[in-house]
Amino acid sequence: MSSQNGNGSKGISLGALARRPETGSLIGFIVVYIFFAVLGGPVFLGLPGWSSWLNIAAEVGIIALPVGLLMIAGEFDISVGSIVPAASMMTAMLGGHYDAPAIVAILAGLGVGLTIGLVNGLLVTRTTIPSLIVTIGVMFAVMGLTLGFAVLVKGSTSVSYVPDPLTKSLMGQFVKGFSVSIFWWLGLVAVFFYALHVSPWGNWIFAIGGDKESARNAGIPTSQMTIALFMASGFCAALVGVLQVMTYQQAQVAGGQAFIFNSIMCVVIGGVLLTGGAGSIIGILLGTMTFAVVNQGIFFAGLDPNIQFIITGALLLAAVLSNDRFRAMATSAAAKK
Amino acid sequence: MTMMKTLMIATTTALMATSAMAADIFVVGGKPDDPFWSRVKMGAEDAGKVAEAQGGSVTWLGPQNYDNLGPDAAELIRQAIDQGADAIVGPNWVPEAMDSAFEAVVAAGIPLVIYNAGGIEAADRLGALNYVGAVDYKSGYAGGEYLAKAGHTNGACVNTLPGAANIEAFCSGFNDGLAENGGTGSVLQLPATAFGDSTAVAQAVRAHLLQNPDITAMFAIGDQDSNATISGIQQAGKTGSVHVCGMNFNDSILANIKAGTQACAIDQQGYQQGFFAVSILNNHVMYGTTIPTREILTGPGVIDASNVDLVIAGVEAGAR
């Protein structure tokens, strides 16, 4: 799909294509898709199958984009797992419990994500604590606050909210089985593609991930950039929370934890280097699609769902190995010329 | 001077009395942010008000998550022993992992009540005073029976916590409830990470329904899963033809039943489980009383369109 846009603009030669970092992710996606197409049959190949895995891909994909950018910049964000329920609780609480207008509820939900992102960014840039630890700490703090806040205000751990028809159609609707969150996801793919591959910020992000000290010495505002990235991941996680409220018309203080590892998984399968400095939006997109196909293909194929973990684990390892291989190919090819 | 002395004696006697007589009760249960368990916890704490008035206490111990349920819960039971519990309440979710911890409680001479999961068999086997809770099998059976009698005879139970004894019992009860009323049942197994992730549950239900078009009845093991299952049915374009019963309820489940998108909810009345388990133990520690009725059933109760308004009134009154 959109991967062709990424490759098409460059001169097409088989060797150059094989050396592109996304190639491994693309091959992975095709292999996995064919595997489940054979087992899942016509329903999986048809529109219901596509909408089924795209719905899963959309939510984890929205979070995987900024998590991927952070990883390219050499940082982790674990707190996304608690931002999803925190934002959905804020939105449902304002909209459902206090009857605030939908736009206020949505902005407040997104504001929760931006604020937590800001806190993450400040803690990471102002202290020497690694972002992995900072965001784990923030995750637990946010989980506790969400629970305490919900029980204090509502006396319950779940809040229901019936959005008005316009809001519902923009954020919580299904069109022929396709969730509107897929369109939000694709819109964000375009935004993040621009940010990483077109605008100057992209080079800054790669530079920060490659060598933070040199990047700072070269005049790149590394701290501001890191804070902005954490706010982006807070915002995107909050958006997923808001979309979930609009879809399921209910917010729960629990849930969202699965997004932590799932988003990292999508990003790594998509060829982003764990140590930072390398990766692409097309790769993250393909990684997310691969992850979602495995996730949903299991149910169409009628396999034991636990096999999903085995396949996801194997994919992850294969992705990391093939990334190294493709990177080695790319460097040696460049050296010869 | 004499007044001071009298006061001091009075205080000392009071202190001695509390330390000798008070019951520090430890309750092992689910995550405090789990909607169902927050109601159990409230029941336990409300019963705990009596214990507190007598100088005792109620402490809630819950796991951080359900990824490693059996061993984590067993660890919490051992923690309760180590913290000097006078009485312990716990669910027998995963007997293989938890039985030895419960045996350690009884061996230490600490009165024990099993609640929520395990049934009277677990209480007898482990030497507990009593069992307080719904019988999971009967809860599932009630759901299967209800849907089969309404004419929806091909059913699937959505199991988002495979391996947990009470969830397996819901599903086998549901399938037997269908089978003994002329239907057939199966189980849709989800990976444990899907628990609490509505989108994952909804998409799994949808895929399963598309691949198995004969299914017309579904059973969800909790209120959040019920909402997700209903969404999955809507996305599969099967609203009105596939009917759902689910365990437990909350505001949105009651709204579903009123709107007709959910056929029934099976209530095990979690508040009662926490309340009676703590109450029985507090009275036992304080006064040596026992409840001769063994197996205190708190469920199943079926909530459907016929009685949903009464239940909503009960929720508004704070009683459910």
TrEMBL record, chain A:
<keyword id="KW-0762">Sugar transport</keyword>
<dbReference type="GO" id="GO:0005886">
    <property type="term" value="C:plasma membrane"/>
</dbReference>
<keyword id="KW-0812">Transmembrane</keyword>
<keyword id="KW-0472">Membrane</keyword>
<feature type="transmembrane region" description="Helical">
    <location>
        <begin position="52"/>
        <end position="72"/>
    </location>
</feature>
<keyword id="KW-1003">Cell membrane</keyword>
<keyword id="KW-0813">Transport</keyword>
<dbReference type="InterPro" id="IPR001851">
    <property type="entry name" value="ABC_transp_permease"/>
</dbReference>
<protein>
    <recommendedName>
        <fullName>Xylose transport system permease protein XylH</fullName>
    </recommendedName>
</protein>
<keyword id="KW-1133">Transmembrane helix</keyword>
<feature type="transmembrane region" description="Helical">
    <location>
        <begin position="129"/>
        <end position="153"/>
    </location>
</feature>
<feature type="transmembrane region" description="Helical">
    <location>
        <begin position="227"/>
        <end position="247"/>
    </location>
</feature>
<feature type="transmembrane region" description="Helical">
    <location>
        <begin position="102"/>
        <end position="123"/>
    </location>
</feature>
<feature type="transmembrane region" description="Helical">
    <location>
        <begin position="298"/>
        <end position="321"/>
    </location>
</feature>
<feature type="transmembrane region" description="Helical">
    <location>
        <begin position="174"/>
        <end position="196"/>
    </location>
</feature>
<keyword id="KW-0997">Cell inner membrane</keyword>
<dbReference type="Pfam" id="PF02653">
    <property type="entry name" value="BPD_transp_2"/>
</dbReference>
<comment type="function">
    <text>Part of the binding-protein-dependent transport system for D-xylose. Probably responsible for the translocation of the substrate across the membrane.</text>
</comment>
<feature type="transmembrane region" description="Helical">
    <location>
        <begin position="26"/>
        <end position="45"/>
    </location>
</feature>
<feature type="transmembrane region" description="Helical">
    <location>
        <begin position="259"/>
        <end position="286"/>
    </location>
</feature>
<dbReference type="GO" id="GO:0022857">
    <property type="term" value="F:transmembrane transporter activity"/>
</dbReference>
From TrEMBL, chain B:
<dbReference type="InterPro" id="IPR025997">
    <property type="entry name" value="SBP_2_dom"/>
</dbReference>
<keyword id="KW-0762">Sugar transport</keyword>
<dbReference type="GO" id="GO:0030288">
    <property type="term" value="C:outer membrane-bounded periplasmic space"/>
</dbReference>
<feature type="domain" description="Periplasmic binding protein">
    <location>
        <begin position="27"/>
        <end position="285"/>
    </location>
</feature>
<protein>
    <submittedName>
        <fullName>Simple sugar transport system substrate-binding protein</fullName>
    </submittedName>
</protein>
<comment type="similarity">
    <text>Belongs to the bacterial solute-binding protein 2 family.</text>
</comment>
<dbReference type="InterPro" id="IPR050555">
    <property type="entry name" value="Bact_Solute-Bind_Prot2"/>
</dbReference>
<keyword id="KW-0732">Signal</keyword>
<dbReference type="InterPro" id="IPR028082">
    <property type="entry name" value="Peripla_BP_I"/>
</dbReference>
<keyword id="KW-0813">Transport</keyword>
<dbReference type="Pfam" id="PF13407">
    <property type="entry name" value="Peripla_BP_4"/>
</dbReference>
<feature type="signal peptide">
    <location>
        <begin position="1"/>
        <end position="22"/>
    </location>
</feature>
<dbReference type="GO" id="GO:0030246">
    <property type="term" value="F:carbohydrate binding"/>
</dbReference>
